[in-house]
Design a protein that fits this description.
12 strands, 16 helices, alpha/beta, seven-stranded mixed β-sheet, Aspartate Aminotransferase, domain 2, 12% strand, Aspartate Aminotransferase, domain 1, 489 residues, single chain
């Protein structure tokens, strides 16, 4: 008898069952995983199994106890995180890759789509002459970009920082609104988190050019090397876009690396109404974007683009491993011939980043774009931006709502107000928790110019305009209920 009898000939019926369960999950008629009466934990929390139950029983447990008690993140009314549930195309592609190409290497169709999809993304977003590498998310994507910036800065001084380390202090300039992974990247790269200078923002959350110039001048006088300027093309807090043209010109004039963090907001460039805000992107030395944010991939897909991947190779190359390269070593007389998909590793993505083993992420992005094209992506981006604009319009007009910042992209920051309540922050915090527990429309909160705001960010492929209006209706209803409750003796 085979050791693993379930490993051949069972995928089609089992995936069909799982697909039916996921389709049912996507109706969003089930309560939250922690709703009273949900008893999945007692079924799952068991001792280590000494004998297995078989694939059919595993599939049954998945369908009965795991899938129905999944996350609220894929709900169309969930707008707290800038991640979402993967689309059907993304799920199909990821499943195919997990079985047919568990690594991105070798001369396979999956490896081919890794590079093709990177070219498609660069073309879609106007990143002329840029090359990319996939990673797991914006945290790693920013790390790679700043690693390239470090390599470039020190190579200009005749030093290889990846091989020999750094011999002087450097500075990275980012706003107080920049994603906190910039500080973490600086720490991991040995620059030090304190090397990141917090540059002040204007009232719209954009980097102040005058504050940047002062900080750079102060560092030069102190003997600190300005290494990189980090601009945001859509902050995760409010969706603000820094003045890319001005910042890129300052970077070029000073010989400083210009990095644009577009993890969330780069796809906004597809909306011609806000596309002018991206003018100056062509000055960037590196750009990142996360397809698992606004493009419909499940979490785990990000891209770092640079003008020359050889710089990434010098920054992140690893030492050869005999077992790895040896498994693909061809005789010298066949060096120019590739006759098998495992004749060599193909594009050496492992030297362009920090991952050796990595899934085939490109096939997911390929599937997303192949399904709906640039036109479909554009329609989605415009729809989500319209949803934020709709909430802003309602908030400006309604006496019990206050718009705290005009939306730039698909984020709108607003709050409930009442002349009967002095502690508006407390009121909106309680309102937010009640929204979450109702499990329908779930934004996050943030602070805008000191005030606590309700902050929906619309990125989900399944989110439509009625979900934006439903959020407004729930905010007004719950806000009125809380005000009445606070007035009770």
């Amino acid at each position: 008898m085979p050791t693993d009898p379930a490993e051949t000939g069972r995928l089609q019926p089992l995936l069909s069952q799982l697909g039916a369960g996921l389709d049912d999950f996507l109706k969003f008629e089930h309560p939250d995983a922690l709703h009273p009466g949900r008893r999945w934990r007692e079924h799952l929390d068991i001792a280590l199994p000494r004998t297995g139950i078989g694939i059919d029983a595993v599939a049954d447990e998945l369908l009965r106890h795991v899938v129905p008690n999944g996350s609220s993140v894929p709900r169309p009314g969930f707008s707290a995180f800038i991640t979402t549930g993967g689309t059907t195309a993304a799920a199909l592609a990821a499943t195919a890759a997990g079985i047919a190409s568990p690594q991105r290497y070798g001369h396979t169709a999956f490896n081919f789509l890794e590079e093709l999809s990177l070219r498609w993304l660069a073309d879609m977003f106007g990143l002329v002459s840029m090359q990319g590498v996939y990673s797991s998310g914006g945290s790693v994507a920013n790390l790679l970009a700043l690693g390239a910036a470090r390599q470039s800065a020190f190579e200009r001084l005749g030093r290889d920082p990846a091989a020999d380390g750094m011999d002087r202090s450097v500075a990275v300039y980012a706003t107080t609104e920049a994603h906190h992974t910039i500080q973490r990247s600086a720490g991991v790269l040995g620059l030090g988190r304190r090397a990141v200078r917090a540059i002040a923002c204007d009232e719209r959350g954009r980097m102040r050019v005058d504050a940047l110039c002062r900080a750079m001048a102060e560092d030069r006088r102190a003997g600190v090397l300005p290494m990189a300027i980090v601009a945001s093309a859509g902050t995760t807090n409010t969706g603000a876009i820094d003045p890319l043209r001005s910042l890129g010109e300052i970077a070029r004039e000073n010989g400083v690396w210009f990095h644009v963090d577009g993890a969330y907001g780069l796809p906004g460039r597809l909306d011609d109404r806000v596309a002018p805000l991206y003018e100056g992107l062509g000055l960037a030395d590196s750009v990142i974007v996360d397809p698992h944010k606004w493009l419909g991939a499940a979490v785990g897909v990000a891209v770092t683009f640079v003008r020359d991947r050889e710089l990434l190779r010098r920054a992140f190359t690893q030492e050869p491993a005999a077992y790895l390269e040896g498994s693909m070593q061809r005789p010298d007389d066949e060096a120019a011939r590739i006759e098998h998909s495992m004749d060599d590793m193909g594009v050496p993505y492992y030297d362009f980043g920090v991952e050796l083993s990595a899934p085939s992420r490109g096939v997911v992005v390929w599937a997303l774009i192949r399904e709906i094209g640039v036109s479909g992506m554009t329609q989605r981006i415009r729809r989500h931006n319209d949803m934020a604009t709709h909430i802003a319009r309602v908030a400006r007009a309604h006496p019990n709502l206050e718009l705290l910042q005009e939306p730039t992209l698909s984020i709108c920051c607003f709050r409930y107000v009442s002349p009967e309540v002095r502690d508006l922050d407390g009121l909106n915090q309680r309102l937010h928790r009640r929204l979450t527990r109702e499990n329908r429309n779930m934004p996050s909160t943030t602070r805008v110019n000191g005030a606590l705001a309700l902050r929906p960010c619309f990125v989900g492929a399944r989110s439509e305009m009625p979900h934006a209006q439903a959020l407004v209706d729930d905010v007004l209803r719950i806000g009125a209920e809380l005000v009445r409750e606070s007035a009770l003796p």
